[in-house]
Design a protein that fits this description.
The chain is built from 15 helices and 20 strands. The protein is an alpha/beta fold. Strand 8 and strand 9 form a beta hairpin. The radius of gyration is 25 Å and the shape is globular.
Length: about 525
């Protein structure tokens, strides 16, 4: 059943076995996994089924010294969450991402990648991905992927797969609405998590709508699934039983905010044959759309004491140039003979000159002039307690304290970005494929960041997973330390973030948590 809580005539009490707060990728996955189970579930969502500016405004907040997106523009606050406009890039974390690193404080998860393998498999249908696991380049037969022969001490190929993209709020709405054991409350905002006097057991939620409706939710188990900023905010706001907020006895709630630093980091020219690197501009296998990138290997990361990095090769190839078409026709690699013949005819002079230069052992001048190359970099941010979400004294439309995001990057973060680019440049040069030049400020040996840097809106780490309560907020089962019935779902539990987009892992962890809740209920 789905109902509009904002139309409630009077304060009421909603009771369930499991209460899920937030209907984004994590919350909807949890609800879908629990559909038809014996447990009664209530799914509490701040918005409705469509974008609403007044509800979206509840995300507003302040920023620290480092430039970042306006907070109200980072996420979407209605049924389906940010899957309502995400691009669909799916990529699992690697085994290395879960391991501790001597040079990165707070690194290491209390679980290993192997524990998520089955859940990654179960996550694929949620994103409408093909049944075959296409993430591992080692599984590709010759001819399916033209992977560069990079030095395994430096770089490896890593693959992302694209969801259609799946809009979770639309795709799974009917299944949730038709499930007899799920009750959905729209336009219901959590204003506080209530707890026992010793703050070790959640007793209920206070909820309110912008229209003035108020009420309470009581359940046996609670799951907070509102995103990397809002999860921390709700815990910090719930400070009646525990000073400083629930789960915050060691002052870790909101700390270690992590992003993926995004940067068009280097520019250059492609001096080799474009066909050699063509798959790195994206390719398809059947209905599957794939994007290979160059990633720094664990060996190189350890040698240079850096964190995870991937670089996407982006090309500006002159489609009118006759020589690439002539080359494909001669080599038998043309998939569109008519287009390639037309390119040769309409660009005959340059095709002839370029072919002559190639015979003399020189790269065709037309290729050098037209085939530009850029590197788009995505790098991991190390967990940093000073990079954080905190409350301010400003209030939102519900009277709740708003947040301040103080995003901070370190010298290690910049070194990771710089070294990743240098390794890509060295390998392209070694293979005779191209030359690149880094942005001046990135190449400089200092910890300052310059223009062009932005974040991917991947909010991670603010309720990080750790076996030690002094170093995190949730345990290996995503249960808040010291509280027996409060769990957190989403990328806020990530101990480290890797360099891949987080949504695929968010859903895998949500499926794992759903299994845990089923076993408890």
């Amino acid at each position: 059943m789905i109902r509009d809580f904002s139309a409630a005539p009077e304060p009421g009490l909603v009771e369930a076995d499991i209460c899920i707060i937030g209907a984004g990728a994590a919350g909807i996955t949890l609800a879908t996994e629990l559909a038809g189970h014996r447990a009664k579930v209530v799914l509490v969502e701040s918005g409705g089924f469509e974008f609403d500016a007044e509800t979206q405004g509840l995300y507003e907040g302040e920023l620290g010294a480092m430039e970042y997106w306006p907070l109200a523009a980072c996420r979407l606050r209605f049924f389906g969450g940010t899957t309502n406009h995400w691009t669909g890039r799916c990529q699992p974390l690697t085994a290395w991402d879960f391991e501790p690193r001597p040079w990165t404080k707070y690194s290491g998860w209390p679980i290993r990648r192997a524990e998520l393998d089955a859940f990654y498999g179960r996550a694929r249908p949620y994103f409408e991905l093909s049944g075959e696991n296409l993430f591992d380049p080692a599984r590709y037969e010759p001819g399916r992927l033209r992977a560069l022969p990079t030095d395994p001490q430096r770089l490896e190929t890593r693959i992302a797969q694209w969801s259609p993209p799946t809009r979770f709020g639309q795709r799974y709405r009917s299944a949730i609405a038709e499930s007899a054991n799920i009750d959905v409350l729209l336009y219901a905002n959590v204003t506080a998590i209530e707890a026992s006097e010793d703050a070790r057991h959640v007793t209920g939620l206070r909820i309110a709508s912008l229209s003035g409706a108020t009420g309470r939710v009581r359940a046996r188990q609670f799951v907070l699934a509102c995103g990397g900023i809002e999860n921390a905010r709700i815990l910090l706001l719930s400070d009646e039983a525990e000073r400083g907020g629930l789960g915050n006895r060691h002052d870790m709630v909101g700390r270690c905010f992590m992003e993926h630093a995004h940067l068009t980091s280097a520019y250059g020219i492609l001096t080799g044959d474009f066909e050699t690197v063509a798959d790195y501009s994206g390719f398809n296998i059947g209905d599957a759309s794939l994007s290979p990138t160059l990633a720094v290997t664990p060996t190189a990361k350890a040698a240079h004491r850096i964190n995870d990095y991937i670089g996407a090769l982006e090309f500006d190839i002159d489609a009118e140039a006759g020589y690439p078409s002539l080359n494909r026709l001669v080599r038998g690699g043309s998939e569109d003979h008519l287009s390639d013949v037309w390119n040769v005819i309409t660009d005959l002079d340059n095709a002839a000159v370029s072919a002559f230069e190639r015979l003399r052992g020189r790269a065709p001048l037309r290729e050098l002039a037209s085939n530009t190359l850029t590197i788009f970099s995505i790098s991991e941010q190390e967990p940093n307690p000073d990079s954080r979400v905190a409350l301010t004294e400003a209030r939102d439309a519900l009277g709740q304290r708003m947040v301040k995001l103080d995003w901070r990057l370190t010298e290690t973060d910049k070194r990771t970005m710089r070294m990743g680019n240098e390794l890509v440049g060295m390998e392209l040069g070694r293979l005779g494929l191209g030359r690149i030049q880094l942005r001046d400020w990135l190449a400089a040996d200092h910890d300052r960041w310059g223009d062009g840097l932005w974040g991917g809106n991947h909010h991670m780490g603010t309720t990080r997973m750790s076996e030690d309560p002094r170093l995190g907020v949730v345990d290996r089962d995503c249960r808040v330390h010291g509280i027996d019935n409060l769990f957190v779902a989403g990328s806020s539990v990530f101990a480290t973030g890797g360099a891949g987009n987080p949504t695929f892992t968010i859903v895998a962890l949500a499926i794992r948590l759903a299994d845990h809740l089923k076993a408890m209920t």
